[in-house]
């Protein structure tokens, strides 16, 4: 799956923050003290990521793509600190621009509820509402999950913090999953339009301390799904699909009714 501009910029930022650092060295020469600045760490990996990003920018942001390639090519010839700082600044600008344009929905769920969540993504979010793969982060769906080389810390930091909405799919499996509870903690910290959805086998009196029952909704309730569709369509300026939405919503409800 081809990485989006946002994902490429995130990769560059993660490498620079987690695998690289600047080094300041003092040395003496003929009674004078000089300071030498350099960059150490995963330089080759970072420059390769910068190259990938620069080519991805060439059509949409040609000026930034050109500047990024320029600093990447000059990195080994001149003051490394200057070019490294310039590349990091450009990457941050790309992230800001792309975040404004991106639709980000983070889905926290147990891997044991993978099939239910996949049907929710397929019939409700994509076929019904019209969102795309790049709009959704969902660990159980390959093209929407953690990429090779991305650790759990970066997964939580990048995808929870940048989300417009966070959906917590509460089930009996969710309540005993350490990873799910960690994700829930991260979602609580960001407070970015959190929505609690109860899978059919969970009742309100079983939620306990996980969340406020007044804020939780039954996923199998058609009124709840219609409310979600209306909210996302309005928030992202998407067209309301009418009969198409009703058909896919019913397909999802029929699936839940046959499964539970």
Helix coverage percent: 40-55%
Total domain count: 2
Q: How are helices and strands ordered from N to C? A: HEEHHHEHEHEHEEHH
Tell the overall outline.
elongated
Mean pLDDT over all positions: 82
Low-pLDDT residue spans: 142-149
Structural class label: alpha/beta
Give a written overview of the molecule.
- With 260 residues, the chain is an alpha/beta fold.
- It folds into two domains: 5-101, no CATH class; 105-259, Rossmann fold.
- Helices cover 53% and strands 16% of the residues.
- It has nine helices and seven strands, in the order αββαααβαβαβαββαα.
- The strands form two sheets. A five-stranded parallel β-sheet has the order 4-3-5-6-7, with helices on one face. Strands 1-2 form a two-stranded antiparallel sheet.
- Helix 7 (178-190) links the parallel strand 5 (165-170) and strand 6 (194-198).
- Helix 2 packs antiparallel against helix 3, helix 5 packs across helix 8 (222-236) and helix 8 (222-236) crosses helix 9.
- The longest helix has 22 residues, at 80-101.
- Residues 142-149 have low confidence and may be disordered.
Q: What secondary-structure arrangement, pairings included, does this model have?
A:
Layout: H1 5-18, E1 20-29, E2 32-41, H2 43-60, H3 62-74, H4 80-101, E3 105-108, H5 114-129, E4 136-138, H6 152-161, E5 165-170, H7 178-190, E6 194-198, E7 216-218, H8 222-236, H9 243-259
Which key terms come to mind for this protein?
two-stranded antiparallel ribbon, 2 domains, Rossmann fold, 53% helix, 260 residues, 5-stranded parallel β-sheet, 16% strand, alpha/beta
């Amino acid at each position: 799956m081809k990485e989006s501009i946002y994902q490429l910029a995130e990769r560059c930022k993660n490498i620079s923050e987690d695998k690289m650092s600047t080094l300041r060295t003092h040395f003496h020469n003929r009674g004078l003290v000089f300071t030498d600045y350099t960059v150490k760490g995963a330089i080759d990996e970072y420059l390769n990521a910068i190259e990938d990003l620069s080519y991805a920018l060439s059509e949409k942001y040609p000026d930034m793509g050109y500047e990024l390639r320029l600093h990447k090519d000059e990195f080994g010839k001149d003051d490394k600190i200057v070019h490294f700082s310039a590349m990091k600044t450009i990457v941050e600008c790309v992230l800001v621009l792309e975040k404004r344009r991106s639709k980000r929905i983070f889905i926290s769920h147990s891997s044991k509820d993978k099939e239910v969540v996949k049907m929710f993504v397929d019939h409700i979010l994509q076929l019904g509402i019209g969102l795309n793969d790049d709009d959704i982060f969902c660990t159980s769906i390959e093209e929407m999950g953690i990429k090779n080389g991305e650790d759990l810390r970066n997964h939580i930091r990048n995808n929870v913090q940048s989300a417009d909405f966070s959906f917590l799919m509460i089930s009996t499996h969710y309540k005993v999953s350490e990873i799910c509870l960690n994700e829930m903690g991260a979602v609580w910290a960001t407070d970015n339009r959190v929505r609690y959805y109860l899978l059919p086998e969970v009742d309100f009196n079983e939620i306990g301390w996980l969340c406020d029952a007044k804020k939780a909704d039954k996923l199998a309730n058609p009124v709840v799904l219609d409310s979600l569709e209306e909210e996302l369509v309005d928030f992202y300026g998407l067209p309301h699909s009418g009969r198409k939405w009703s058909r896919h919503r019913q397909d999802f409800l029929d699936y839940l009714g046959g499964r539970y």
